[in-house]
Amino acid sequence: MSRTTAPAPADRKDGANAPAEGLSHGLKQRHLSMIALGGVIGAGLFVGSGAGIAAAGPSIVIAYAISGVLVMLVMRMLGEMSAANPASGSFSVHAERAFGSWAGFTSGWAFWFLLCVAVGLEGIGAAKIMTGWFPGSPEWAWVALFMVVFCATNLAAVKNFGEFEFWFAALKVGAIVLFLGIGVLAIVGVLPGTDAPGTTNLNGDGGFFPHGSEGLIVGLLASVFAYGGLETVTIAAAESEHPVQGVAKAVRTAMWRIALFYIGSMAVIVTLVPWDDKAVVEKGPYVAALDHLGIPAAGQIMNVVVLVALLSAMNANIYGASRMAGSLVARGQGPKALGRLYGGVPRPAVLVSCVVGFGCVLLSYWSPDKAFIWLLNTIGAIILVVWFFIAASQLVLRRRTEREAPEKLVVRMWAFPVLTWVALAGMAAVFVLMAREEGTRVQLYSTGGLTLALAVVGFVRQRTAAARAS
Fold first, then answer.
1. Considering only Cβ atoms within 10 Å of each terminal Cβ, which end of the chain, N or C, has fewer?
2. What burial class does residue 13 get, using C-beta atoms within 10 Å of its C-beta: 0-12 exposed, 13-18 middle, 19+ buried?
3. Which residues pair with 27 in a beta bridge?
4. Is the separation of the CB atoms in 111 and 231 below 8 Å?
């Protein structure tokens, strides 16, 4: 049997479909919608986007628009596959169905590793804010506190995770909507105490492309990775009341809203504030814009928003990591103990994901210049690897679904297969750009090494299982 004709997980009898059947279904549509919206609204947008603005200037708007189109294509493809076959393993399950267990193993464990490291990074960021408010308190203690809280949240029923994420995401979305509203009022000159800036900051110092195409490329690379996190909604859909309808609606509504938030925010910021203002990087672009408008206590307001964003991301990533690990184990691609369910929750997977995340935090103290930097470089391009698996899997599974069960295509990729190939070409272009830039080249090579190692292990496991079966 060829790798492209392997039976779908739903047809197998080795537990591949267990995650969707054994997990609880406590998430409601409102949870899914807010998870989709809040999943990518994190510190990368509120703070990290400042580096992109400094590199690209006003052209950062174009960078976010280009990467936003790529992300929308990826999410449409993932939405199509997830609506047709909801699974807690999401793209890992789809990759396995399309190419064999090695692909599911590679994409799934790479994503799990990314989420665990991200949990640690978000904990460190949140702890830095808390130590600013409570000088003298140890950072590691705050991280440990956050880990305990969200580990407990994820060990309980999934509806608790859903409620936490609903309110966290609502606060983040509300903050961005309020920011956009204030910014638009200032741009048109109707905000009290402000004058309309016109196009001074857009075509002033250095013009719209102050650093030329190289600056745009750096901004593009920064913006691509800022969109990571949307995948969580397709993982969560398997535990919702109506998985097919839930993921279809969440994907459809989230894509354009997130593009509006990202692209709209960048447009407002570079219109209001000179792109080379040092405060954009030092304080963060949102704080710089609010300070520029004379909004009282802007820094503390945004610190609260960023803290909420970081805690929300911690919560969501612990959830996503545990479900991905549980799904992999249920498909025979990990230690069985890790996938055991207690009350519909893979509690061992939750605990291990939290322990690994906290281990990354400890490495940041024990070996900040070696082991921790290695971790950061290794996860640098994993999200692009995941997107590549998504697009490649959709090329295979769309044809198969059209032949075998066309009624399952409740969400369809636009202009298939043309736009799928366009997305793959876009990802390949990003890989090339990463190889060109000194700052991202090491990330590309480190991620490539991890991906290759996982693929080799996965392929050996697949061949071994096939030999035993024969």
1. C
2. exposed
3. 240
4. yes
Rounded Cα distance between 23 and 45, Å, is: 32
Q: Which of 395, 324, 408 is nearest to 73 (CA)?
A: 395
Answer for the pair 417, 395: CB distance below 8 angstroms, yes or no. yes
Please list, in sequence order, all residues whose beta carbon lies within 8 angstroms of the beta carbon of residue 67, skipping any fewer than 6 positions away.
Answer: 220, 223, 224, 226, 227
| Torsion, Cα of 316, 157, 411, 112 (10° steps) | 40
With beta carbons less than 8 A apart as the criterion, state whether 293 and 191 touch. Answer: yes
**Residue 336 to residue 389: CA distance in whole angstroms:** 25
**Which letter does DSSP use for residue 187 in this model?**
H
Cα–Cα distance between 217 and 400 in angstroms, integer? 37
How confident is the model over 418-450, as pLDDT tens digits?
A: 999 999 999 999 999 999 888 789 999 999 999
Tokens of 5: 């004709």
Looking at the DSSP assignment, which residues form a beta bridge with residue 240? Answer: 27
The pLDDT of residue 136: 92
Instruction: Report CA-CA distances (Å) from 342 to 152, 154, 381.
Output: 14, 12, 34
Which of 16, 398, 92, 26 shows the shortest CA–CA distance to 242?
26
Which of 110, 115, 68, 118 has the alpha carbon at shortest distance from 386? Answer: 110
d(CA 75, CA 387) in angstroms, rounded, equals 9
Q: What is the pLDDT of residues 379-418, one digit of tens each?
A: 889 999 999 999 999 999 999 999 999 999 988 999 999 9
* Sequence letter at residue 412: R
CA distance 114 to 110: 6
Nearest to 26 by CA among 154, 140, 115, 143: 154
CB 137 within 8 A of CB 131: yes
Q: Is the pLDDT of residue 38 over 80?
A: no
Work out whether the CA dihedral 259, 261, 262, 263 comes out positive or negative.
Answer: positive
Number of CB atoms found within 10 A of residue 451's CB: 22
Q: Cα 199 to chain center, whole Å?
A: 33
* Phi (first) and psi of residue 2, to 5 degrees: -75, 165
Average the pLDDT over 135-154 and give the result: 92
pLDDT in tens, 237-259: 777 777 787 777 777 776 677 77
Q: Is the pLDDT of residue 19 over 50?
A: no
- How many alpha carbons lie under 13 Å from residue 412 in its C-beta half-sphere? 13
